[in-house]
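MODEL INPUT / OUTPUT PAIR
PAIR INDEX: 1
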Amino acid sequence: MPAVVSSRLAVVQFNATVGDLAGNAKRIADLAREAHARGARCVITPELSLTGYPPEDLLLRPAFMQACDEALRACAESLADLPGLQVVVGHPQAVDALGDVRTRSLAVQRRVNAASVLRQGRVVATYAKRELPNYQVFDERRYFVSGRDAGLGPVVVDVDGLRLGLLICEDAWFDEPAAAAKAAGAQALAVINASPFHLGKAGEREARMAERTRATGLPLVYAHLVGGQDEVVFDGASFAVDAQGRVQARAASFAEELLLVDVTADGAVAGSVAPGPSLEAQAWGALVTGVRDYLGKNGFPGAIIGLSGGIDSALVLAVAVDALGADKVRAVMMPSPYTADISWIDARDMARRLGVQYDEISITPMFEAFKASLAAEFAGLPEDTTEENIQARCRGVLLMALSNKTGRIVLTTGNKSEMATGYCTLYGDMAGGFAVIKDVAKTLVYRLAAWRNGQGTAPVIPERIITRPPSAELRPDQTDQDSLPPYEVLDAILQRYMEEDQGIEYIVAAGYPRTDVERVTRLIRINEYKRRQAPVGIRITHRSFGKDWRYPITSKFRA
């Protein structure tokens, strides 16, 4: 009986930086050399690994496309001395360089989302993505034409006798591209991906790829990007499934890794299997990755956080320290006449536990100065949210001044529940450069705080910060629930209305009080203008207040 063909593949799970073509190409080449030294004969990199993902409107610039072509050629030439090695690289490609285009729109005739095979110093084959996602954060039809419309068919690579069919991300979620690869002779599938993270996405990917392998009878290797890019993060967790749909190899989440996978022509797969993280660990990994890469890739020397003694700023401080290190994080407590003594005590305690620079700057003098300047205008009028917002804006001015002077970026501390309902102040607590927990609902804030305290040898967030009733402390004896429904109710309504697109009547029928449903949905609608002015923030759900949410500010629709 003839021996079963077996090939060693290497998945290069690395953190690409958008636009750093030379840096990304060098990283690919260096990791390819390492993989070759460890016996791999085919190296698989993520989707658009050469450019980073998503390059967005950089793709519309001819100079960028030309630079991509040059970087791809240079990468191929740098690997010419590695005998028997093939490297699959994700990159954009001008269509007219590959074949006929049969579409009518000139706007989509210029480029495809491609995977090219590099061998012996040159490009020997190029596959073009066939299924172009245009939902959630994806906008690929703005930039790419499908491989079908470009007249480009399947690509199958011979790797030491194993015939490997190439697919790109969304292709593997549909039947036709994989079936076409199998019809072209593929004995296994390699899928290159840049699939933005949201909670639970890793399990969803594995389940869908298992369906694909069972449908085709072919094993599948899934190469995935890792790292942060503006508001999206990529969790890595590359994997491989055998022909029966069982996961037989998995890389770590939120970490770079070179994953070696042995694949045989009869559908077997072998490799190391990293454990899948819990939901809280996923969220924490995404937040830490998002902060680390936003600051690191954009050259900020550190972060400044307004520390209030409350749960939100405490969580952001803990994330920032895990992402950047204590030496790069500064916490500033800015008490007002309404700040409780326990807020001072808890803020000092947490700063001490984490070892960050901590300062206290009272806003009372400037708050009183503002009130004095406006006394004639406000004569005879009662105090209301105007005075509350002045306090928040005093803090915003101080934090932005410190940011301007030191170059450190202000991390804002508003959560998703607050952003949804407008429980935040323009040019006040919304002032800053990066919104760390913008997509973290208040109930999840508490879960993450408790989870983080369970890691390591000692809690980093004082217990009283977690257990005391949340308050903005902008007037005497204030709590959040004075103005909002209980967070358990608010967040459930928010999830149904905003994330799942359920209508008001549907939510009421599910058992939620009509007054709460109408109140929360009204707050979501009327505060769109605030969210449009908020800083970019990390996306961890399948629908965030960012690229996923494109509602008009001016609208009379109610449902």
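PAIR INDEX: 2
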Amino acid sequence: MKHDVSYGEEENNPARSAPVSTLVTPDDIRYDNLCHAYNYRFIAQPDYFRLAHSPQQAEEAVREAVAAGKRITVRSGGHCGEDFVAAPDVQVILDLSPMSRVDFDRERNAFVVEAGASVGTMIDALFRRWGVTVPVGFCMGVGAGGHISGGGYGPLSRMLGLSVDHLYAVEVVVVDQDRNVSTVVATREESDPNRDLWWAHTGGGGGNFGVITRYWMRSQEASGTDPAGLLPRPPGALDIAEVSWPWDRLTEADFVRLTGNFMDWQLANSAPGSPNADLYALLDCLHRSAGNITLHAQVPVEAPDSGARMDAFLEALGVGVATAPAVRRKSLPWLAASQYLAVPDTGPTAIGLRCKVKSADLRAPHSPEQRATLYRHLTGDDYRATYAAVEYIAYGGKVNTVPSTATAIPRDALLKTFYMVTWQDPAEDDRHMRWIRELYRDMHSSTGGVPVPNDVNTGAYINYADVDLADPEWNTSGVPWHALYYGDNYPGLQEVKARWDPLNIFHHTLSVTHPRTPTQKEW
């Protein structure tokens, strides 16, 4: 049965209608190109790649690998920060990037998004064709397959919730206890016997339960059959502020006050229904050698008192800070504004990019001592980088109107922090890795080097995967990594794992396990 109105095209498309996906082996001119994805710290060397053009091809590729006893991983956009796809023992990589269509499925009355569609493709297609959107991120090259399954968020999340709050169904290729391979559609309907598989993909992360091939998006509160009414409409235009503080005029006291002002305002205006929940802001604290302290803020132009509220926010940031920033203001139509903030696809365009990322979600502000620690790490003369930063990112709002158990991603965070360093020379790996690891450890020194959930922290975000959380050298808290990412939802994810991937076919360094998880040799 075909569910997508456009899938009838497959009969006239040999690549999509063929049962076997494109095979790329080491002697193929395309092989080396496919081995290099976003993060050049991890160069894939599988026996072969399979490029799937349809769910049928994805299923057959999994069946082939399972029958041969080969370890298989899957990628959509290829933007993983760790070696979940490109680990040394991976023998087959299933690449879903050819599956990038966004369409409307009249039978399910929902938008269908193939797992290989990038965030940029999804935003553009949904808006240009139907005038709607999903609250996703602004890294345009990230694939939907990983972004949505990890509980993807973005600049509109304070107004519209998370991407998974609009997820109606997910299609997954799974492998049962007898190594039978099948494709399952799981919906959020309470009567759906597969609903647990849908739940696991509302924040459980990719690569855990099977191969995600398609998503169907429709808002919970939506009704009718007009596509334009089944997902949120974005703002018509945004009032944007771009602000910059030069490092050479910021004292430690100024920095501590500025970051404190930002967090205090965001936390005070992050409750569901807050009049300022529509004002999104990101404070980017670059290392002194890499640039200045910058802020991006935006608010819908048509919202009540939008200009005055932006003025008040910017004024609140400067209270007690001796250095006045440079401020640029502009208004842009929403689609142009989303591109203005966007991080482009940094895979092929950033040749040789190597990176390490970390995260921590907050329900209360960092202490003055933590902010002073951050200042010292960002201004040290013993370290230089082309990009090294800690970002404070607005969060909360409508995100926290959903109970934590309703989706796999925990709720209650009001602010996100994101740590990132990038470089190109492999000889510099140790230096850059040491800098970000020591910064993160020192920021969370009172809780064993990691953001243990407490009155300040709510944990970390699985889409910013960080294997250090499972390393006792860097996590001395005694709290396991899965409690940091999933909180009380982890036992539920284990139950889903046991049901849908009992042989542990799909696994990686931070994958969900169940009490009797087989090894590769056993299956």
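PAIR 2 NOTE: The first strand starts at residue 22 and ends at 24.
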